């Protein structure tokens, strides 16, 4: 994809690039099982080399010299979100389901999510990152993760219309896309409608305080989404939750490049097992043996100290391990700025 995108960027015949899935999903995420297998059989750097390529691809899309139209029809999670949510136009449908479920496997919300989750209203990004909650296309538009909503049946018609584009002018492209826009059916009791309570709980300083706040809410409101959030956080990797919270919060003060570089550093520590074996244990329990009973170390939130979390954000102490170097690109734009 990097090779093709670089070629299209300098090809005068190419005016826009469309990203879409090949099948019923856009992309359910990176193949972490393949990375796990290669690292266990060889060296932890196999995982970081794959990840660096993935980040380079995300960065290329975010800084692309021509408009990128991501048609996100179906599941979009993890690596799929990192790729599509950097696009100029992020179009979703009634089939779209978004989630960042990394904390369930001992990983953290990565692939640029410290940038895009930290820029949506209130603490909705913390909620999505810490609970693995799924939201539909309509809510993605509502919170700003997506720019347009259309019906899946119109996707082919939109592509045909975009095939006729003769310039890279985003205003012209926006006008074409707007012809296919459909008013999304936002559920009255959808996740984003609960923003007041989400802000109340997820604005707390620590993961422990967030969980305690949710449990307090559950005592007076036995709503499914609150119970789901509590259950997820209690079963997720404790260290992953704390890493994700810090990553998203620091991301609010960083540009995209800083976010990607910092996330890459965290990934290096995770696959190198600097602090714990959680990522390997999570993949074993959830994806390999599928016993769904991972043994996290540390096993409880209160045992994960600030010092432990801080080590994930520190420079990797390895002679041949250089920090991620992103190429200088002249077209870096704020991909989270509304395009409507």
UniProtKB/TrEMBL annotation:
This is 3-hydroxyisobutyryl-CoA hydrolase. Keywords: Hydrolase. GO terms for biological process: L-valine catabolic process. It comes from Populus deltoides (Eastern poplar). It is an enzyme of class 3 (hydrolase). InterPro entries: ClpP/crotonase-like_dom_sf, ECH_dom, HIBYL-CoA-H. Its EC number is 3.1.2.4. One of its GO terms (molecular function) is 3-hydroxyisobutyryl-CoA hydrolase activity.
